[in-house]
Amino acid sequence: MNRVVVTGMGIVSPNAINLNAFRQALCEGRSGIAHCPQMKELGFACQVGGIPPVSDQTVQEYMGPEMNRNSNASMKYAVIASVDCWRDSGLPLRGTDSSPDWDTAAIIGTCAGGADTVAELVGPETNAGRVRRLGSSAAERSMASCGSACVGGLLGLGGQVTTNSSACATGTEAIINGYWMIREGRSERVLAGSSEPASIYTWATLDALRVATRQSNDQPQAACRPLSASAAGLVPAGGAGIIMLESLSSAESRKARIYAEVLGGYSNSGGQRNGGSITAANPESVQRCVRKSLEVAKVPPEEIDYINGHLTGTEGDVKEIRSLSAALGRKLADMPWVNATKSLIGHGIGAAGSMECVATLLQLANGFLHPSLNCDDFHPEIAALEPRVPKTSIPFQGRTALKTSFGFGDVNACVIFRRWE
Amino acid sequence: MNRDQVRTAFFELIKSYVRIQNPVISESSMLIDDLKVNSTRFVDIILETEDRFKISISDEEMDRFDRVGDAIDFICEKTVAAA
Prior knowledge:
The complex is a heterodimer. By secondary structure, chain A is α/β, with parallel strands linked by helices. Chain A has 2 domains: 4-253, Peroxisomal Thiolase, Chain A, domain 1; 265-419, Peroxisomal Thiolase, Chain A, domain 1 (3-Layer(aba) Sandwich). Helices cover 35% and strands 19% of the residues of chain A. In chain A, a hairpin with a 2-residue loop joins strand 1 and strand 2 (16-17). Chain B is 48% helix and 0% strand. Chain B contains 3 helices and no strands. Chain B is an all-alpha fold. The A-B interface holds A 65-66, 69-70, 133, 135-137 and B 16-17, 19, 38, 40-44, 47.
């Protein structure tokens, strides 16, 4: 069984585009949440969101005019994060006349990557009887695998190129799936992660469900409040996070810089039983997912130094913390450090897990933990955890991090990273 | 529009679809074989031509767009017919 390491990363997030800017934004605790005038105009109850500041000029630099014209936001975010990840891993970009890179696969997930295209183009034109006016790219922009297909073509990937989708667990699940591909010798490298458009159509469904906050429209940066007594709902966001997973032997043979080792991970479901539902996690399955991750990684619970939680700023936060505490067999006061990247960048839905894995890896590699914003009024039911949650950026010399992600459908994904030394 | 005007406008229209460095576009150029236009995008050239010259082009007539000069002749015929 191959050991799996991380040799590159790329990010498109609401508070920064590219790795160095994201590291800086995390370190400074800079929020990427802003007022969204379009949501107000359209009568959303929640009028704040996390929209990555991607300019058309930036997109052109990465994909050229033809691909730009034929891409949606999910594809653009996926390409920017993937190309940055590719460069960061030290691999040369391949020309269009080169043969495919047979040794690299891609798993780039999404929750609803083509939603904008369907809502803005396919639906209206089809309903108006103008199917022949859809254009050539309607198909590739509508399909769930729009992001992975676009990246696969641009980088000339010759391994399996696919898209997974498991709601808000998507990004972390992609990384776990990529880990297994390399572990089992099915690929030398896997570009793994996810991409999600900052789509008002996806956000509308969350607003309709009353799970998005509606109490901080005049204070966007205070809107996302994980672990807080006044947490009032999630803040929708978009973005992409991509990491280069690689077999240790491949990384060593090309003398690649290594950020961390992926020690193991696990995905499961709670079957929408015992407290689980389409929108809520079955606590037993969350605990099982964490324990199985530890088992796969061969890491005892006491060696977990830091948890990057799913922590959305909803009532699920308290349940998550209780489940983590039970799974690790550690009392709240004895828990690892815990922070919530969503407090800075909102809930990236299908991209949440991958953006937060990038945040986790950057913190491990650079020896700091970012502040968990907006939890000064810590939730009283988990008060004993408060000293374990950094409210300012702090130095961190821990080695081992657990990343948790949970999604609609009662699905879970947990992955364990260890800093490379 | 006279033929020269159609020619200039059509050359401009296809420019963003051409996928070769420093292309020399002539009336004898084949869109896919010579100018390396992505065959998937061929339908977008047809739609853009419809919009630009205010004509309609049936699926059967798309064959007239293989060669640049033939496409220009076709557009001229259609615009005259439309007038």
